[in-house]
Specification:
The chain is α+β, with helices and mostly antiparallel strands. It contains 4 helices and 4 strands, in the order βααββαβα.
Length: about 150
């Protein structure tokens, strides 16, 4: 069984991805393909529904229209570090958000990467969080070292 994403707040889940230039794919192409795969979830014998079942994701409560569940769009210019960044928004909250996020991570994203390569969509948010944690740890070590050196 897979671990489901934790989405306990009512705020939407946001994940930033970068579209790799080497992939030669546009956001519109990814959006269309994701919508097609999402529609496949409603077909009992489709690859998408079999993948969801393999990961034990219950798709019975999922809307057949991807826009009701997830939204993939360009990052607003004020927040974009890179013009190729896009933001995935999980529209629902609670259990429905967990299902939508699991479908994205375990069904849609692997299919997108299989079609256009691993460079098609690269997650950016996690890297920022990890680097922020490293920076905080470094600051903490520096403060401790300064306290040890400071005369009393």
């Amino acid at each position: 069984m897979i671990k489901t994403a934790r989405t306990t707040s009512s705020a939407p889940t946001l994940i930033t991805y970068g579209i790799g230039r080497a992939a030669g794919v546009s956001l519109k192409q990814i959006q269309r393909y994701a919508a097609d795969v999402w529609r496949e979830l409603g077909e009992v014998d489709s690859d998408a529904s079999r993948n969801a079942a393999r990961f034990r994701i219950d798709v019975s409560s999922v809307s057949r229209d991807i826009k009701d569940e997830v939204d993939l769009r360009p990052t607003p210019p004020a927040f974009a570090f890179n013009p190729n960044d896009v933001v995935l928004t999980i529209v629902k909250s609670g259990a429905a958000a967990r299902v939508a996020l699991d479908l994205w991570r375990y069904v849609l994203l692997p299919r997108i990467r299989a079609k256009w390569g691993d460079d098609a969509l690269k997650e950016r948010e996690r890297a920022r969080k990890d680097s922020a944690k490293k920076a905080a740890a470094t600051r903490s070590k520096t403060r401790k070292a300064k306290k040890k050196r400071a005369p009393r």
